[in-house]
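Q: My labmate handed me this sequence with no annotations at all. I'd like to see what the chain might look like in three dimensions before we decide whether it's worth expressing. Could you predict it?
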Amino acid sequence: MLKVGVIGASGYTGGELLRLLVRHPKVKITAVSARTSVGQTLEDINPALNVPDLDLKIAAPEAVDDCEVVFLAVPHGVSSELAVDLIKAGQKVIDLGADFRLKDRGVYEKWYQQEHGAPELLGDAVYGLPEIHRDQIRKSTLIGNPGCYPTSIILALAPILKAGIGNLNSIIINSLSGVSGAGRGLGERYHFSHCAGNLTAYGVGSHRHLPEIEQELSGLVDSEVRISFTPHLVPAVRGILTTITLGVDSLQSTDELIALYREFYQNEFFIRIQPPGVLPQTKYVIGSNFCDLGAVYDSRTRRAVIVSAIDNLGKGAASQAVQNLSIMAGWSERLGIDHPAMYP
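A: Here is what I predict for the chain of 344 residues:
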């Protein structure tokens, strides 16, 4: 059994990670940590994790010293400081925060408005999107787990950009996310009386996931890509639905577009391409590691419309981190995360 630890166990992402790991057939959780919950049990901080055979109390971060792999589910700025000592000790790190997603220190410091805590590790970090960077993940000791919005967007655009038929100056993206994407912390706009029945756009042109998305899209085509991205908060707990439009060349039909996506992802278990006339819905991915993709070619405007659906806490965070763990360990990527979505 591989010994793993989780730092940041009290948040939504940390809780989802623990939910997956407690039943993973090749993993033993030997330490959990949460800054404000030292001494409490897992049941104290998350009653849903009432696992009688997992007798663990929340400890300080030093408790993970015996772990072979450590998951960091902590805010940006915190994980980079923790990662330095973990890497020096020979442990592998999967960071679910933002500190190791961006390759350029200057870009990170501009968008996150703080100095990077471990710039010397940026060159070694691998962006943990398995369908794009599997070979690099396999050999890495430090993974920057992708953000939720970037996961839904990069997977949706990769086939069309790699085919060289997308107009790179015409990409418009709208994403809708449930409120769990904002984390467990309190905030007025996340109160039930404000969220219920309310839809709102935010972070227009300024969301911190923007440089992450552009970095990865640019890497796919070896050319600078700039996008228009508008995220929205919707009155749902979990899930992200992303709609992307862009101009395309050399396409004649929706069938041709969908065939392109099916070929690109033909060997990817967790990517499900919807048939013509069917578009993804968040209800069919909640609680899972699946990313559902649908596509329409609008011949009137010569634009492709791509729709993706993921669970922001699943493929957008925790289950993707477990997928990365399996790749690093040389296991089947489906271990512990190939269950279907929760419905209804």
